[in-house]
Backbone:
């Protein structure tokens, strides 16, 4: 198995997803209030069966495009915990996390005695039958983008800002450090190296072979980015742009407002280029020329990329009306996922965004039509957006890029 990601849009060959599961049935209304201590970073109750059907459409697109190299995270986890020693280490790490955060006391023997299937249910839901083991379920695991990032040949295990997501990071650590698939891969554990800092995958865009764009968000501080500059340089990226984002839920990660979809095209949430946002989004910190302290630039990302020698066509999420832009950013219109240059995946509910993509020469194809004719579309030189149902999945504030963790892309 090969691993390497040197761009956002190189032809995809290996990707990891996680289908909505039983963990969503353990989310209650009290978990949905952002001002509540029990908030799970999930904005609505979803119909799990419907969300699973929607996710299956995404999975099938990825499965067919990669010739079968789309893997479910839970399938990988099940293999890892079939080894007794690894299983026990994972359990101890999860219990320690719970004790550190909530001062909980959990008997590890309860979990060690479980079968892999039953243990996975506990890890996802927090419950062993009717007994509550962990304080919270982990419904955000569907957003596999956040648990790790492939940077060149190195897999970065991330560490979440919010406590409710940290169990996901522990599961990811044990999968990537122990599954036979990843034995030849360099793994960099961010939390082990920098225990007082956080970073999440949705903020990191491997823009192209030389540039990385990272959001300075509520979950990824500039200090975390500085710690990783050495790794970026080692993986032969020469320029890193750190973009200062408003620290608010709607713009939680860089990829909620900006995703690269082709060699010279990107989807963007238009207000970030307007005056009312400029005081928050025209500050960019540039690392380059092997330096570890950034230069501060007071320009927006469009101008900064142009100055770096890259002319981009920015396609508007939500088209021209501000109300449509706001609505479709909320349902992840700017969060597309590139299968290869100019072949992308998006939610079918973002009609205005799709109209803008059509103006830019994209052809819309629904998931079922693509799956029935994928060989033809994969070989086609036309630009396409493959749309699938996302009315339930989008309730968690994440789009196709959030739902995918690419580990191998071919060079363009």
Residues:
């Amino acid at each position: 198995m090969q691993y390497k990601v040197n761009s956002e849009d190189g032809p995809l060959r290996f990707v990891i997803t996680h289908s909505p599961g039983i963990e969503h049935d353990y989310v209650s209304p009290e978990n949905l209030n952002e001002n509540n201590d029990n908030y799970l970073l999930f904005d609505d109750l979803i119909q799990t069966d419907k969300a699973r059907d929607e996710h299956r459409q995404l999975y099938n697109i990825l499965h067919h495009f990669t010739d079968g190299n789309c893997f479910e995270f839970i399938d990988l986890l099940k293999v890892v915990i079939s080894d007794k020693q690894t299983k026990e280490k994972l359990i101890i790490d999860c219990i320690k996390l719970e004790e550190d955060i909530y001062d909980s006391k959990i008997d590890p023997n309860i979990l060690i005695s479980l079968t892999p299937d039953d243990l996975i249910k506990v890890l996802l839901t927090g419950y062993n039958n009717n007994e509550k083991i962990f304080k919270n379920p982990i419904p955000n695991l569907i957003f596999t983008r956040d648990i790790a990032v492939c940077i060149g040949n190195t897999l970065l295990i991330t560490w979440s800002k919010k406590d409710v997501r940290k169990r996901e990071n522990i599961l990811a650590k044990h999968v990537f450090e122990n599954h036979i698939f990843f034995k030849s891969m360099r793994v960099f554990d961010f939390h082990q190296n920098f225990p007082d800092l956080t970073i999440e995958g949705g903020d990191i865009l491997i823009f192209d072979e030389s540039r990385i764009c990272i959001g300075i968000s509520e979950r990824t501080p500039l200090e975390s980015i500085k710690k990783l500059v050495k790794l970026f340089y080692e993986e032969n990226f020469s320029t890193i742009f750190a973009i200062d984002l408003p620290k608010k839920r709607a713009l939680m990660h860089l990829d909620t407002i900006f995703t690269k979809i082709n060699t010279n095209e990107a989807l963007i949430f238009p207000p970030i280029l307007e005056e009312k946002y400029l005081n928050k989004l025209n500050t960019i910190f540039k690392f380059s020329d092997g330096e570890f302290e950034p230069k501060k630039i007071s320009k927006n990302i469009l101008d900064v990329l142009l100055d770096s020698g890259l002319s981009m066509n920015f396609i508007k999420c939500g088209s021209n009306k501000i109300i449509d832009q706001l609505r479709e950013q909320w349902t992840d219109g700017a969060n597309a996922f590139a299968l290869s240059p100019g072949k992308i995946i998006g939610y079918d509910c973002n009609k205005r965004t799709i109209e803008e993509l059509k103006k830019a020469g994209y052809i819309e194809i629904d998931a079922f039509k693509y799956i029935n004719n994928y060989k033809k579309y994969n070989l086609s030189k036309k630009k396409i957006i493959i749309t699938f149902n996302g009315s339930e999945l989008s309730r968690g504030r994440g789009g196709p890029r959030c739902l995918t963790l690419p580990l191998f892309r071919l060079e363009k």
In short: The chain is about 35% helix and 20% strand.
